[in-house]
Amino acid sequence: MKDLAMLALDTARQRGALYADIRILRIRDEQLRTKNGQVAGVDRTEDMGFGIRVVADGAWGFSSSQKVTKEEIARVAAEAVKIAKASARVQRRPMEIAPEPPHVDRWSTPFEVDPFAVPLDEKIGLLLEVDAVLRSVSGVKIAEGSMAFNREIQDFASTEGSYIEQTILRSSVGYSATAVGKSDVQVRSYPTSGGAGQTMNKGYELIREWKLKENAKRIAEEAVALLTADQCPSGQKDIILAGDQLALQVHESCGHPIELDRVLGSEANYAGTSFLTVEKLRKLQYGSPIVHIVADSLSPAGCGTFGYDDEGVPAQRWDIVKDGLFVGYLTSRETAAAIGEKRSRATMRADGWNRTPIIRMNNVSLMPGTWKLDDLIADTEDGIYMETNRSWSIDQLRYNFQFGTELGWEIKNGKRTRMLKNCTYQGITPEFWNACDAICDDKHWVLWGTANCGKGEPGQIAATGHGAAPARFRKVKVGVGYVE
Amino acid sequence: MWSSEECRRILDEVIRLSDADETEAYLGGGHSALTRFANNSIHQNVEEMNVSLTVRTVLGKRAGRASTNKLDHDSLVRVIEDAKAIARVSEPDAGMLPVPGPAATENNDAYVEETASTTAEQRAAEVGKIVSRAETRGLTAAGKYLTGWGSLGEYGEKPAFALANSRGHFACYRCSRAEVGATIIAKDSSGWVGTNHHDARRLDIARLGDIATWKAEASANPREVPPGAYTVILEPEAVANLLWFLVWTDGFNALAADEERCFATGKVGQKLFGENITIEDDAFHPLHMSRPWDGEGVPKKKIALVENGVLKSLVYDRRTAAKHGVEPTGHGFPAPNLMGAWPTELVVHGGSQSVEDLVRSTERGILVTRFWYNRTVDPMKCIVTGMTRDGTFLVEGGKIVSGLKNFRFNESALEMLNKVEAMSAPERADSIVVPAMKVRDFHFTSVTRF
Predict the structure, then answer these.
(1) ipTM of the complex
(2) Are residues A378 and A425 in the same domain?
(3) Over the stretch A193-213, which tens digit does the pLDDT of each residue have?
(4) Secondary structure (H, E, C), A285-305
(5) Which of B368, B359, B414, B362 has the alpha carbon at shortest distance from B387?
(6) A127 and A84, same structural domain?
């Protein structure tokens, strides 16, 4: 691999590149799905290729191919330089990147059980056992389950002298029960929703940790109970968000707006920009004083955990919101330089070999507070506890959001009372986070994975991590999705 | 793009090498190049070439599927063996159908060599037209210009462009693609335009840039009006953004109707929408020219989904069709298919008016360019939430009088199709064919900060 990488860098330099890097990837993927007692799909995919990124004439170029041969690497390197020179035709000023010393290293995701070594029939057998439990509950019409495993082995080399071999291993598991009533469909998911369920950079031990069979009956019964549950009321309520829902709230209303490429306009035509503009750094009270949000590529087993990002910068941990104050961005070498920071925060990741790296969330997490969930419910007079995402939407500057959850519980005078269905809530990001007055402690804190975050043109999928414990937000608009 | 003969040679080799009871092989992927610009500069300029060979093998009533992006002999052998290994440990599927036999598929190729081979220099020149016009008006341009061939999807998906199976069925679809999107940004407003075509020469990129520029300037100094039920004029892009949810909530999927989890459950033959609503699925429509067969290899049929407001028909995958004793319609997902079928080449009939006519006939309303971050709130009721974006205008006395701060909406796509007062001629938007629509009592539920 090293010879091929050096060929790419030499060719790029000879063609006029001031900087070049190459990533050569070997990807193995396995997906298993079951539905109503049947195997709905077992897919294995192997994917190999390389991408070359260059700076020439002060502009970026990127080209890629699945043919990993000397001839193709030389051709693609030359093509990338040609593309960069075309980019320079429409450019206002040459781009600059923050300095980074060369790194020569190897890094791998720690794991206990290689998921690719676990027999297929064991994996399918477990999903079918869960499926049977789900369908044993009267009223469940559809039971679905899935597992997915992904291993990416990457060689990164740059003209600055870095050579990094990195292996990332990721596992996912989840299932759902769909109950059907008269003109109504209700779904409950476990461990959480979002298609993939829970996702972490771990081995097969993830699947064993989540007690899939033990929770199946409860999940199925909740789906059926939702059919006859009362509709979520409309009005202003205190809400307590379960950790899995709060993880997505952090993702959408904090994680995306701190991406510095968005802030600086790179995503303006697609994902949008951000209300967290540069002049607000270290000035905006983003949330209440108990809100502490950290970006951390070092958290064990998170979807945003790695040794180096795809620009070859080592993983880091830093504050995003400290005591409610907005203090940090996710940056790249280019965007760090653009706002005068000395070094990238290492958040550039690419979706495979055929995409150029862009800024992606690592593990952006809300730090735990001091409350026990039971105490928090007992302390709430008129509220709703909401769990597991069902619907999510936010504007392109990340102000106005609306979320829906699979399950809700009304809280009256400190007691959990009736189940509520079709729960929705809506708010404006800084107002919402400033209304946060209680966060549960580390016993309730879970590092959730968001497996399918989309961004960029061409589109790129990334898995991101978000730790959260349940938290309370005062006087939030609820019941906004069902308008008469 | 590869010729039909080249595709056939590769796929036939796979079929020849496989000793499974039945074998299907699919080729997907292609070439894609995308020039991306923001802040009046090209900031990302990328190119990729990727293929996918997927092999499905059947051993008795067990099946397995495996994919590779390598096409050398050893990789073909390996992917076949991998698919067979999966089949051996899979559960038997009593309801499994044999792979489809040979069937003639109508040629619907949409391939233009000049588009497929567009260079980075050519794309930069076109992008330069948008950027220079924005710059001369003191505005900022962002956007993309994509060209390529084959089936590479937005996120690198590689659906099949050719398939063959051990019963002798073969189909191939050749296409090129050009797609442009541009957002022009002013101090407190923005305007957007976007479209695609298989022939890049049909995209008048300078004119598209002018439309986005006009929207940005005309929506400057946006006013804030309270949320509520308004008459809206939805441009075709906004209509398409919403009507996709009829598909994504499995509304026309016969399997979902069997499972009683979509709005069409038990309602075929009933009048669900206004008299003026007629919806077809037609891959052969000149504004589509899409792949003329589905993921199961079944030739696509033109389907009347809704006629004058009456739900006429659903779309059927092979398994669901067999259960109902009808022919599959050519809208199924690849086997093993427990998801059913989606009609993805919608054609919504329209009227004869222009968007300007719809504005002129409106005493007070809101003109919407497009919706953004749209998500299902309730699948059975087809309630969708999302935001207006990049050109939202107040209409009074038949004229656009100002830009507006953006709204969040919560609206049922089903109910909306009962409130359509007038329509323009249909055009291609968001990859389907739809008219602009004037809709009464559209529900905006909150306003954002810009």
Answers:
(1) 0.96
(2) yes
(3) 988 999 999 999 999 999 999
(4) ECCCCCCCEEEECCCCCCCCC
(5) B368
(6) yes
